[in-house]
Amino acid sequence: MISVSIIGSGRVAKHLHDAFSLNGEIDIVQVVSRNTTALQGFDQARSTTSDFKDIADSDIYIIAVSDNAINSVSQQLNTKNKLVVHTSGATPMDILATHPRHGVFYPLQSFSKDRPMDFNKVPLCLESNTQSDLDLLKQLAQKITGRIYEVSTEQRKTLHLAAVFVNNFTNHLYHLAHEICKEKELSFELLRPLIGETVDKLSHLTPYQAQTGPARRGDQSTIDTHLAQLKKPVEIEIYKLLSQSIENTYGKEL
Length: 254
Description:
Helices cover 43% and strands 15% of the residues. It has two domains: 2-151, 3-Layer(aba) Sandwich (Rossmann fold), CATH 3.40.50.720; 156-250, Orthogonal Bundle (N-(1-d-carboxylethyl)-l-norvaline Dehydrogenase, domain 2), CATH 1.10.1040. The longest helix has 31 residues, at 153-183. The chain contains ten helices and eight strands. The termini are far apart.
């Protein structure tokens, strides 16, 4: 049995709580948050508190808060030489260096409120300042997922950067496409099969191999037609920038 306390009550904290609660070998000792309303949703924890002075003893303390709050939260923890980790992709492990035993428990996924997550499909990126604590994090990770990776701070920062490209930027492009459709009273649903096929192809092709479209084939006439259709300067700039990047990537093949 591994005992954990979760510090935070946001989306990552809630999804970890839910994943841990499905495994009988994980004891969720406590969830700690200043947001007393949010704490009501953590019903599988043995206790909840908004007072850092009341923190219970656990094997591992998981700080699942916004990146800019990790340091201040860490300073409030009196963990009696227990393992303290954070869940951030972009924050160095050493921000927790005031704790003799520290590390990272980073789930590489986008979490949304009230949307269930199958944690067995979520890669967990682990790091610690000692091998024994890295082994402890592996034991915890193995109870909720089979996708476990030892990743250094620099590697994790690179993964987080890449994740912004494939998730955050891509979703924003979906939003722009949604707005373009809405302006002409077209349903975004028409594009969903295309989105699905684009993702499915990546199961057997590299992104380089999967690229299609006017910029890929050097079809300047279609590119000019699309640019003429766009009205917002930011959309025009994005279209030009991405088209140029694709042309630069495949230029020798056109």
